[in-house]
Amino acid sequence: MEIIPAIDLLEGTCVRLFQGDYDQVTQFNPDPVRQALNWQDDGAKLIHIVDLDGAKQGVGKNDEVLLKIIEKISIPLQLGGGIRNIERAEYLLNKGVDRIILGTLALEQPNLVIKLAGKYPNQIIVGIDAKEGYVATRGWINKSDTKATDLVSSLNGVDLAAIIYTDISKDGTLSGPNINQLREVAEVSTVSVIASGGIGTYEDIISLQCLEKYGVDSVIVGRALYENNIDLSEAIKVANNLNLIDVINNE
């Protein structure tokens, strides 16, 4: 289980939203570059970045900060938020983003996702943000009539790097992940699933162990790190110990 620290960018600073609500914003660090370096120093192997301005407006608004982060860190990063055409996707990949996350585009223009995945295999992630099991788009503002599991099934066979599944009602709440929905999504997905939303304690990380056999192999952690409920280096140790327990149990 890989621990992926999150940086959510809003007007150039690190923030977290509560349940995806742009009216409930908490600022945590005015220096995202320093924050990225801190995560790297704490042992992160990958950083998850969301351009919240881009997600809401459909246009990248934090590129200056993003490019500085790419310049300073030596580990990969994945980026989502407002990537709604091929030109934007290719711009980011050519600038050093290792994996891009497509959300709204996956629902509204799935053929473009298929095209990008064919051209950039294992660099395209589909981010599925759901309210009560239904996909939400455009910065989590619009709830669609499409079930998350149906969208995942429609993408099977596409050369994706992973699926990120976020239960919006859990995001930023520190109330624990939605195990049942994660399992439902993982069971129908042919690629690995990254859990997102609700992680508040080390026990929440441990609770995901039951999903590894279904293909949930990593988890994004945000607010819990910023509020010091979880220490990243310790969380990585916890995750590594889970893998060790699996090895012992299988012997």
Low-confidence parts lasting 5 or more residues at pLDDT below 50?
Answer: 244-251
CATH architecture descriptor text = Alpha-Beta Barrel
Q: State the distance separating the first and last CA atoms.
A: 19 Å
Total count of helical runs of at least 4 residues: 11
Query: How helix-rich are the residues, as a percent range?
Result: 25-40%
CATH fold naming: TIM Barrel
What Rg do the Cα atoms give?
Answer: 17 Å
Order of helices and strands: EEEHEHHEHEHHEEEHEHEHEHH
Tell me the overall shape.
Answer: globular
> So, the CATH homologous superfamily?
Aldolase class I
Chain-averaged pLDDT:
90
The proportion of strand residues reads 25-35%
Please provide the count of β strands. Answer: 12
Main beta sheet? 8 strands, parallel, barrel
- Structural class from helices and strands? alpha/beta
Give the strand order, joined by hyphens, for the main sheet: 1-4-5-6-7-10-11-12
Domain unit count: 1
According to CATH, what is the class? Alpha Beta
Q: What features would you describe in this structure?
A:
The chain is of the alpha/beta class. An 8-stranded parallel β-barrel has the order 1-4-5-6-7-10-11-12, surrounded by 6 helices. β2 and β3 form a beta hairpin. The protein starts with a strand and ends with a helix. The C terminus is likely disordered.
Write a concise keyword list for the protein shown above.
251 residues; alpha/beta; TIM Barrel; disordered C terminus
Task: Describe the structure in brief.
The protein has 251 residues and is of the alpha/beta class.
